[in-house]
Amino acid sequence: MEINYCMTCGAPLTVRDVDGTPRKACTAEGCSFVHWGNYSVGVGALVVRQEKVLLVRRAQEPGKGFWTNPGGYIEQHELIHETIVREVKEEAGIDAKVRSVVAVRDYPRNIHNVYIAFAMDYVGGEPVPDGVEVDSAGFYSLQEMESMNVAGFTKWLVDVALHRGGAGLTEDREPIVKFDGYGLFRV
């Protein structure tokens, strides 16, 4: 969907140069609205328990029938590390806590998609699919995954989860300067 009207005042938008890039901007005098683009941010969980990785089978498109790691899109007023804890619980019934950020996928297109993968520590629960987004859930070994319809990107993420070097980016819970409402991660 293309945006044609200002989201602030409703006036028509026109394309103009904003810092060297053509962008849609408001035509109304006194309104400074610029449409910076369409973006989505997704998160994914890599929960490992006893050398097995938590996977869910997609019950809806995109990816219906494929096994993937649990995940989803962030909500407007939700920190990304809260999103992934919620998504793992909703999709698979598993309690897990964030250990670190271990991978990022950047996929520019009409809606620029960024995906952040978290290594998570298993806390408790047994895999139970939500019955809406996913129709099956469980912990699987690499050998078991060989006979499963695992999505290609998930295969890459499983490799990251099981063979990663270093700790990844970890949450900075006590930064030298407080930034209320921010999620901060550092090496």
Number of helices: 3
Q: What form results from the Cα inertia axes?
A: globular
CATH topology of the largest domain: Nucleoside Triphosphate Pyrophosphohydrolase
CATH architecture of the largest domain: Alpha-Beta Complex
Let me know the number of strands: 12
In percent, how helical is the residue content? 10-25%
Q: What is the residue-averaged pLDDT?
A: 93
Q: Structural class of the secondary structure composition?
A: alpha+beta
Identify the CATH class of the largest domain. Alpha Beta
Let me know the CATH homologous superfamily of the largest domain: Nucleoside Triphosphate Pyrophosphohydrolase
Major sheet attributes: 7 strands, mixed
CA-based gyration radius: 20 Å
Alpha-carbon distance between the two ends: 38 Å
Quickly count the domains: 2
**Low-confidence runs of at least 5 consecutive residues:** none
Pattern of helices and strands: EEEEEEEHEEEHHEE
**SS strand fraction:** 35-45%
Summarize the structure.
The chain is α+β, with helices and mostly antiparallel strands. It has 3 helices and 12 strands, in the order βββββββαβββααββ.
3D architecture notes:
The protein starts with 12 loop residues before the first strand and ends with a strand. The chain is an alpha+beta fold. The longest helix is centred in the middle third of the chain and has 13 residues. The model has no long low-confidence stretch (mean pLDDT 93). The chain has three helices and twelve strands, in the order E-E-E-E-E-E-E-H-E-E-E-H-H-E-E. Strands 4, 5, 6, 7, 8, 9 and 10 form a seven-stranded mixed sheet that branches. A three-stranded antiparallel sheet has the order 1-2-3, with no helix packed on it. A hairpin with a 7-residue loop joins strand 2 and strand 3. 16% of the residues lie in helices and 40% in strands. The chain has two domains: 37 residues, no CATH class; 125 residues, Nucleoside Triphosphate Pyrophosphohydrolase (Alpha-Beta Complex), CATH 3.90.79. It comes from Paenibacillus taihuensis. Keywords: Hydrolase. InterPro entries: NUDIX_hydrolase-like_dom_sf, NUDIX_hydrolase_CS, NUDIX_hydrolase_dom.
